[in-house]
Known about the structure:
By secondary structure, the protein is of the alpha/beta class. It is 42% helix and 18% strand. The protein has eleven helices and eleven strands.
Amino acid sequence: VKKIAVLTSGGDSQGMNAAVRAVVRSALYRGIEVYGIQRGYQGLLNQDLRPMDLRSVGDIIQRGGTILQTARCKEFMTAEGQQRGAEVLREQGIDGLIVIGGDGSYHGANKLSKLGIKTMGLPGTIDNDIAFTDFTIGFDTAVSIVVEAINKLRDTMTSHERSSVVEVMGRHCGDIALYAGLASGAEAILVPEVPFDLKEISLRMKDNFQKGKRHGIVVVAEGAGTGEEVAKNIIEYSGIEPRVTVLGHIQRGGTPTHNDRILASRLADYAVQRLIEGDSAKGIGIIKGEFVATDIDKVVSTKKTFNLDLYNLALRLAQ
Length: 319
Ligand code: ATP
């Protein structure tokens, strides 16, 4: 491998820039040329790529979003699109590609590897829904944003002795709700992975208010229901009228935490090393501090295990 490329794809996440920076600088450090592809697989098909030098990734480690931009590309879902993508890379003499993105983006990387392009996937998504890594790039920052928002809500809730339902991102994976809920002392954490009983939760909140609690926070992952639906149920079962806050896309923006920057830098550097060694079609992760390279096939067909210990801890502490 003499020349590689990097792209970001799917939903953006904080720390993608830190990953792009690390791919570029790590490759150049090892004497490998590196190209940046603009707008994900769409940009690949449009031949929207340029050589990156050391300075091209200056002043971005602290920025959210992605300087390479990202896109969703239907054409790349077809066999012809993938073939064309591989040809574009080959025409430029590029024999390795690092894809930073989620599940769908990993599928794309896998297809390219079957067409002779060596690929590596880096987990770039706030949802933490990729298997074979403890954390994905952006998750730590997203959780921090939710915790900060809940801190602010708590101030005003306590003053008014009110409760809040906070809807956070996570369609299939409740990790943002779990980590943010535990860190902010939520009374209930609703996630798609664990069944819950809104009647029991509502009555518990009512009881807690009667015992002197001055606020109540319910965090709901979007995959477990909407904030409005949950609030309606709480009103019906307990008479408590919670305020609903939907945090939405602010969870995906802002400056990445040091954890996300370090994770992105480490994963990217390792992915470059593996590519240079000739490895391909691997999703890179860190589990318990150790690098792990897992076949992309296996990564995309495995559901991330939900941390029930943390979930139960949050429940025990929410009295
Ligand atoms: P996130 O879920 O965090 O938004 P993602 O990477 O899963 O990120 P997707 O929109 O699912 O986001 O995928 C991004 C792009 O990857 C798609 O627009 C498409 O170009 C490509 N892609 C997705 N699935 C496949 C597939 N099965 N085969 C080839 N390419 C795919």
